[in-house]
């Protein structure tokens, strides 16, 4: 059983970075109050004169509850007579795909047809377009993204997230003397553009501009009409401003639904809600990249 070859699937690196909260029971949407305009203060001109008064206004953000689900029917003979626990094989694969699907929804859900509204589709997030697809252009764009969050959110960004191919491109870059611009942290590098912390997948792999870099293969690589649909994006963000509410992932074994065919239905499902609209200014999407070339 332990030696069978599972299907390789990406996980949920981006979804695990954001603030994860339990989904409230008994609701089909989550409403978050939000101040639209604030109060004001100012100097009092003289004693016993009017004090500055500006009334705040508010609104709310709505995050509808959606369902992520999948199923497969198995012949009862395969469950009862197979030398391996084939139902466990199916459930493992369903759970693996469920994790990938949650991550893709958080990144780029359309908000329609049962999907949550993902980060890429959220109105108000900031965008920086690279001047050139070079170390100078991309490094400067990341610095611009960082200062934008400081300037408009007034709190620091927390993480940089990119596709593994983009991180691989950074690691391939050399200076004028053919020395790598990104070196392992264990080498005690000096005057480098970034640091390689670990040869890892879908977790912290290094550091740029003092921020951890996380790779996620679920980030799309077909954005950008101007780049012939070969564009991946980089996110610089304050991940704690983004909220993902999740219920427990549940499994079901239904023996009666297709009993006339001796088919057992295996299901996996969960409920979730998501919002990147609390502070959209705390997310910067770096665009204008083209597919990297190696060698």
TrEMBL record:
Listed Pfam families: Phage_capsid
Question: Where mainly located?
Answer: virion
Q: The Phage capsid-like C-terminal domain covers which part of the protein?
A: 13-272
Task: Specify the species.
Answer: Mycolicibacterium chlorophenolicum
What name appears for this protein in its UniProt entry? Phage capsid family protein
Residue ranges crossing the lipid bilayer per the database entry: none
The record's listing under InterPro entries reads: Phage_capsid, Phage_capsid-like_C
Classify the source by domain of life.
Bacteria
Localization in the cell: Virion
């Amino acid at each position: 059983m332990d030696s069978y070859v599972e299907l390789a699937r990406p996980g949920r690196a981006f979804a695990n970075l954001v603030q994860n909260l339990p989904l409230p029971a008994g609701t089909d949407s989550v409403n978050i109050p939000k101040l639209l305009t604030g109060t004001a203060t100012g100097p009092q001109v003289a004693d016993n004169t009017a004090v500055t008064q500006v009334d705040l206004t508010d609104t709310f953000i709505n995050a509808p509850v959606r369902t992520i689900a999948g199923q497969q029917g198995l012949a009862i003979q395969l469950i009862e007579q197979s030398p391996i626990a084939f139902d466990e094989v199916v459930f493992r694969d369903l759970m693996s795909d469920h994790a990938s699907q949650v991550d893709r929804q958080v990144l780029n859900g359309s908000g329609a047809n049962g999907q949550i509204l993902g980060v890429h589709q959220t109105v108000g997030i900031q965008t920086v377009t690279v001047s050139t697809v070079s170390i100078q252009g991309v490094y400067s764009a990341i610095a611009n993204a960082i200062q934008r969050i400081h300037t408009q959110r007034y709190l620091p960004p927390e993480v940089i997230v990119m596709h593994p191919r983009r991180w691989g491109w950074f690691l391939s870059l050399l200076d004028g003397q053919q020395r790598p611009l990104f070196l392992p942290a264990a080498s005690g590098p000096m005057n480098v553009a970034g640091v390689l912390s670990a040869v890892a997948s879908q977790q912290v792999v290094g550091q740029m501009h003092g921020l951890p870099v996380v790779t996620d293969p679920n980030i799309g690589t077909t954005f950008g009409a101007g780049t012939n649909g070969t564009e991946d994006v980089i996110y610089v963000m304050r991940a704690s401003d983004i909220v993902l509410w999740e219920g427990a992932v549940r499994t079901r074994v239904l023996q009666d639904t297709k009993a006339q065919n001796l088919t057992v239905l295996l299901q996996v499902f969960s409920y979730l809600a998501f919002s990147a609209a609390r502070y959209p200014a705390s997310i910067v999407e770096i665009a204008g990249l083209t597919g990297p070339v190696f060698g």
